[in-house]
Write a structure and sequence with these properties.
Blueprint: E1 2-20, E2 23-31, H1 39-52, H2 57-60, H3 73-86, E3 89-99, H4 109-120, E4 127-132, H5 138-141, E5 145-156
Parallel strand pairs: 3-4
Antiparallel strand pairs: 1-2, 1-5, 3-5
Helix pairs in contact: 1-3
């Protein structure tokens, strides 16, 4: 078994509504991003790739490549899982933490968990989604954007 860690952050003000784990969580806020700006999926992809030693999000989906503009980040997770499987690895467990001052995860937590479990091909009990704030400290505390951290456990398939 191997463990990987991922992190992603996006500022508010772009063209994509806030999505977390593929779920639309806030239509009134927009994020700046190349893809749909889903920080939870981006952190998760980095954690999966890190665990497998396959580089990072930018290595596989560079922002300079137009094919990734506006793509669903859930599709990036799906593709990452296929890349892992091609290298002989499968996801076992993931743990996500969303860091945001005003975006609320709680009402969407189960939808996020269900969607990610399906794409990852793992049981719901193996997908954890949590949230926290920075208690008004820093750029996230000033509600300038949001971030996510992820840990992924993979095993030889």
């Amino acid at each position: 078994m191997r463990v990987g860690f991922g992190f992603d952050a996006h500022r508010f003000g772009g063209q994509w509504p806030v999505r977390l784990g593929g779920v639309l969580v806030d239509e009134s806020r927009m994020v700046e991003a190349t893809s749909d700006g889903d920080v939870a999926c981006h952190a998760l992809v980095d954690a999966l790739f890190g665990a497998a030693g396959l580089g990072d999000l930018g290595t596989h989906y560079p922002s300079t490549d137009a094919q990734w503009h506006g793509v669903s980040s859930l599709e990036l997770v799906r593709d990452a899982v296929q890349k892992l499987e091609g290298g002989g690895w499968v996801p076992i467990q993931v743990d996500l933490t969303v860091v945001a001052q005003s975006v609320k995860v709680g009402p969407h937590r189960e939808a996020i968990r269900n969607g990610l479990a399906g794409v990852l091909g793992i049981g719901l009990a193996n997908v954890s989604v949590k949230a926290t704030t920075t208690d008004f400290m820093g750029s996230i505390g000033r509600d300038e954007g949001l971030a996510a951290m992820a840990v992924a456990v993979i095993a030889a398939g």
